Amino acid sequence: MFKRMLAVGMLVGLMACLAFGQETQRERPRTYRPVVHSLVTIVKIDAAKNTITVKGVYRGQEVERTLLVQSDSKLMKDGKDAKLTDFKEGEQVLVTWRSLRRGEYAVRFLADPPTFFAFLRYPTLKGKVKSFDPATLTLVVEAEGKEHKLTLPGRGECCFAQGKAHRGKAAVWKGGEEVIVVLAAPDRARAVFDSASWKVYGEREWQDYQRRTQARQRQREGQQREGQQK
Description:
This protein is of the alpha+beta class. Among the domains are: 38-117, CATH 2.40.50.320; 122-200, CATH 2.40.50.320. Helices cover 29% and strands 41% of the residues. It contains three helices and 14 strands. The protein has a seven-stranded mixed β-sheet with strand order 10-9-8-13-14-11-12. A hairpin with a 4-residue loop joins strand 8 (124-133) and strand 9.
């Protein structure tokens, strides 16, 4: 009898732990991670075959790869949806691809760097401003028939309007104004910009990314030199 009661107690405890773990998992905030991308140069465009050949540096070696452009491939240029023929050989673009089968790949996203950083690196939400409270940094946007309540960052310049950058508390978003929200999480924004300011935001993000990448590269090279000297 005692053993049976002990077993039942252990089972109840296990179920409680599992329930607590599930509740904790549900409460854990979801944060969007950046899309992994590669900086490449367009080598060849074959509109008849819907393919684009690109080359770039991978693990210290130059690699050339032909990618298939499918119906669900997202191509953008100069802040707008684009076709394969809108790109030219010799252009530098950012691309992310997916594997179809052994040795075959398809474009997932392809765009010039400012466009990629403005619209594709993180999920975005396009809609109209319902309300904005600068005191609480709360922005309500109506998109696809739903209202989305979002919190803006408390630090740095996160709002881009009429070609200029503003801190969240200094921004003035008006009801009915069309905006693009770059999402950090379903209820949090990384940035907000209007149609006249996407390039200001995209260029800034692209330049910041390049500076961080170059700094990491210099750090790795310094560590390698120190290792060789030892």
